Amino acid sequence: MLNLKEIDSLEITTLIDNYSDLLLADQEGVKRFRAKKGVRAALLAEHGLSLLIQAIRGEEKHTVILDAGWTGKAIAYNLKVLEINLAEVETIVLSHGHMDHFGGLKQLLALASKKMPLVCHPDAFLSSRVNLLHGVTKVTLPSLKREEIISAGAIITESKKPYLLGNAFLATTGEIPRQNTYEKGNLNMYLEKEGKLVEDLILDDQSIIANVRNKGLVVIAGCAHAGIVNTVHWAQKITGQKKVYAILGGLHLSGTPNLAYVLEQTVKELKALSLAKIIPMHCTGWQSTHYLSQAMPEAFILNSIGSSYYL
């Protein structure tokens, strides 16, 4: 059993996401970014994800960043506008080795004033990933280069297993078992081996979990390629905590085969958790995000760049 400590609270700020809306109102537990003329510029949205996560217990606080978005330009600019102090960041966690999550990593490392621990699955460095666009055009995906990020200042820890972070205030899920029959992962994602294409199961996919006192688990997904239901069930199993308070991050329901059926099954499982909050981001997709907003209106929160959540 993973020795994940209970924390008093969790603060999460969206550094990078696909969506920006300056007109969203604050609500309980949610602080929206406001652009102020002469003080702050608007933030840059892009197809990617990066989250600043702060876990608090008493006077003790631990800070990590999950992912770094697609471009160094966006992460550097948004960190400046949001006035984020990277000196407080202890670790960077990479959810998986896709460009929209590691693309800004070298720039993020360069901005840090110290060498930075980086936690990832060994498969994050795979160099043979291929996407068949529209099932026809073969595109070799950019790969994360171990030597390049070490030179940029990363101290790499590779782990397939759950990994404790910040004095055990947070943890990665490690590699997530695929157990249900409907979460099939991405369409048209392959590995090229010996001149042949084989299915890429994206086994490096992992999430971050926290256990908030008197509330339950918070599951923070990068893309949830393993399936968000599989991810949540695995988090429950490795922590021994059944209560799930909130789910946020990329849920990768866009591009899913048989989407209507998958959404029906996913919502059925998520409703059974009696979630207080569900905050879809990044790769969830407009259709799926809209579906979740209609199916779970009391828990649903629309994310936007710069939004901060107090859980």
- Classify the helix fraction into a percent range: 10-25%
- The sequence of SSEs as H and E is EEEEEHEHHEEEHEEEEEEEHEHEHE
Lateral arrangement of strands in the main beta sheet: 3-19-2-4-5-6-7-10
Per DSSP E runs of 2 or more residues, the count of β-strands stands at 19
Mean pLDDT: 94
Question: C-alpha Rg, in Å?
Answer: 18 Å
Return residue spans where pLDDT drops below 50 for at least 5 consecutive residues.
none
CATH class: Alpha Beta
With helices defined by DSSP (H or I, 4 residues minimum), what is the helix count? 7
Structural class by sheet pairing and helices: alpha/beta
Question: What's the story with the biggest beta sheet?
Answer: 8 strands, mixed
CATH topology: Metallo-beta-lactamase, Chain A
Global geometry: globular
| CATH architecture heading | 4-Layer Sandwich
> In the residues, how many domains can be counted?
1
CATH superfamily: Ribonuclease Z/Hydroxyacylglutathione hydrolase-like
Brief write-up:
The chain is an alpha/beta fold and 311 residues long. It is built from seven helices and 19 strands. The two termini are 24 Å apart.
Characteristics:
311 residues; alpha/beta; Metallo-beta-lactamase, Chain A; eight-stranded mixed sheet; 21% helix; globular
Question: What does it look like?
Answer:
- The structure is a single chain.
- The chain has 311 residues and is of the alpha/beta class.
- It has one domain: 4-Layer Sandwich (Metallo-beta-lactamase, Chain A).
- The chain contains seven helices and 19 strands.
- The chain has an eight-stranded mixed β-sheet with strand order 3-19-2-4-5-6-7-10. Strands 1, 11, 12, 15, 16, 17 and 18 form a seven-stranded mixed β-sheet that branches.
- Helix 1 crosses helix 3.
- The longest helix is centred in the last third of the chain and has 14 residues.
- The mean pLDDT is 94.
